Amino acid sequence: MRWMIRAIVAVVWLLPFLAAAGDDPLFDWMGLKNPILSLPDRMLKDQAVAIRGGYFYLFASTRSEGPEPADAACFFRTPDFKEFERLESPGLTVTFGATVRGPASPDLVRRGDDWFIVFQAGPKEYFRRLYYSSSADLVSWSPAAAINPGMKPRQRQIDGALAFEAGHWILGYKGGQSFYVTRSKGPELDGRWERPVRASAGGEWAENFQFIKIEGRWRMVATARGSKNLLAGQYTGNHDPFIYEMDGDGSELADWARWKNRTALEVPGEDWNRVMKANSGYLCDWREYDGHFYLFYAGANDGERFAGRGHAMIGVARSLDLVTWRLPGQAD
After folding, report:
1. C-alpha–C-alpha distance, residues 145 and 267, integer Å
2. Helix, strand or coil for residue 305?
3. CA 126, CA 332: separation in Å to the nearest integer?
4. Which of 190, 212, 253, 255 has the fewest CB atoms within 10 Å, measured from its CB?
5. 132, 118 Cβ separation under 8 angstroms
6. How far apart are CA 39 and CA 36, in angstroms?
7. Tens-digit pLDDT profile for residues 118-133
8. What is the mean pLDDT of the chain?
């Protein structure tokens, strides 16, 4: 009996600590505040985020002032989204003559023990192509290579998104102002692809794509035009996050070209993102850790700086159901 009483007392004593850990096992959500990341001399948007070994890794477009993008060859690591470490890897750079470009509009995919990143780079704004690299630890990256050298050589290609399904890689991207998808001919990223097909994001314009499997079904997150956001500029207002359902199971290339049931991810606005509220949303399914989806997005209070993109910063919201979104410091 005595040992049972001691056990009960021990459990009761531990309950507050267990409850606290269950509320926020990843990081201190209640003590966090948006924007979580900003730079004084660069805008940040088009972010992709991954978790590994107790750290979160954030990759993003890091455009400087001026007519050309000049993205920095850097990315960020943080244990708590409060303190960030700036990292660099030569593999995430592409050289064009004397010009070196870093990764812009990145997308991350994990396959087995390795991570793959696809990003855009180019010597000029109007001529940007897609490149990829791989890593076992999200820190050291293999030398970047053109992901599909055979794609239309004169077409501007941006906003790449990768997925792996049924023994093939899927690549989605924006060519000109249209959405395209293609599929690798085998299980490796070796430059052999099927002929790209034009895709439909619910019949509407979209960009900045992400493929994500949720409960066994493929979804797509993309930036599209809503009806409730502010109209401030070409690149800032009316660029909102939406989630789509695949019209198929992903076993055929045609499935990746058909997306339906466009649904807005309604993130609340704050004082720091009154002009551009939630551009380039990136969804992380971290329910296995704490039961939440996390949406990372870019916001700004201007639409003039950085070639009309605004001085964008990164924010985050989370949800239990992809419907109701809470900001940092807000309980469910």
Report:
1. 36
2. helix
3. 44
4. 190
5. yes
6. 11
7. 999 998 877 899 999 9
8. 90
Task: Provide the pairing of β-strand 258-264 with 200-201.
Answer: parallel
> DSSP H helical segments within 139-264, as ranges?
none
CATH, domain range 28-326: 2.115.10.20
Q: What Cα–Cα distance (Å) separates residue 255 from each residue in 109, 249, 260?
A: 19, 7, 11
Alpha helical stretches, state H, the chain? 2-23, 287-290, 305-308
- To the nearest 10°, report the CA torsion of 320, 28, 111, 280: 70
Tens digits of residue pLDDT in 147-176: 998 887 778 999 999 999 999 999 999 998
State residue 2 phi and psi, 5-degree precision.
-60, -40
Residues whose CB is less than 8 angstroms from the CB of residue 130 and which lie 6 or more positions away in sequence, other chains included:
118, 119, 120, 146, 147, 148, 151, 157, 158, 160, 171, 173
Helices (runs of H) and strands (runs of E) counted in the chain = 3, 23
Tell me which H or E stretch contains 326.
strand 325-326
Does 217 have pLDDT greater than 80?
yes
* Tokens standing for residue 100: 């070196």
CA distances from 215 to 218, 295, 312 (A): 8, 17, 32
Reduce the DSSP state of residue 4 to 3 states and report it.
helix
14 contact partners, CB below 8 Å, separation of at least 6: none
User: What is the Cα–Cα distance from 27 to 30, expressed in whole angstroms?
Assistant: 9
Using alpha carbons, list the distances in angstroms from residue 55 to 83, 117, 272: 11, 18, 26
Residue 227 identity? S
Distance CA 126, CA 64 (A): 16
Look up residue 158 and give its amino acid.
Answer: I
Helix (H) or strand (E) holding 172: strand 168-175
Per DSSP, the residues of 243-294 read EEEESS-SSSGGGGGEEEEEEE--PPP-GGGSSEEEEEEEEEEEHHHHSEEE
The CA–CA distances, whole Å, from 44 to 59, 198, 214, 279 equal: 9, 29, 27, 11
Encoding tokens for residue 321? 């159901």
